[in-house]
Amino acid sequence: MRAPALIVLTVLALSAAACATVETPVEPAPAGASSGSPAPVADHDWFYHRDGGEARLVYGLAESDDLRLGLDCGQGSGRLTLSAVAGPDARPEIHVEAGGETERFAARSEPSELHEGVFLTAEAGTDALVFQRFRRVGWIALWLDGERQGYAPHPESAPNIERFFAFCG
User: How far apart, in whole angstroms, are the C-alpha atoms of residue 46 and residue 88?
Assistant: First the structure.
């Protein structure tokens, strides 16, 4: 009697195992990542430069005129000068987003000497919510001509964001 019961249990167990679905393991999302966070772009990154009492954090292509977004400040000033290049018909504003926070800063617009379009500059406080969020999430997006351009650092340059804001105050 034991043998037939054992055979029935074995058949049931094998049948259940054959019907089971196998799920592919999913890689966990990196800490602080959200569905709207951009990925780093090859050859582009955040570059931090300090010269005496002034500092600059720029997203672009190393050692080139390819500036996407620039942030400048004086040490401990709590103020930023933002700069960006936009198309010739761009509104005179710099519209940035970081981790769900969005702000628009009225900008001065002048013809760009290096690119087709205009060079925009605006003033802002380092305490603006969008910059506080930028410090926390590590990326910022610039809205130009209706398109969102996300700027995320490569791992080795990520600390430059906090260095810059700590310097600026």
Answer: 25
CATH architecture of structural domain 44-168: Sandwich (2.60)
Domain boundaries, the chain: 44-168
Beta strands in 32-139 (DSSP E): 44-51, 54-61, 67-74, 79-86, 93-98, 101-111, 118-125
State pTM to two decimals.
0.77
- pLDDT tens-digit profile of 110-160? 999 888 899 999 999 999 999 999 999 999 999 998 899 999 999 999 999
CA distances from residue 44 to 40, 52, 112, 125, 144 in whole angstroms, order as listed: 8, 26, 21, 26, 18
Asked whether 79 and 124 are in contact (CB, 8 A), the reply is: yes
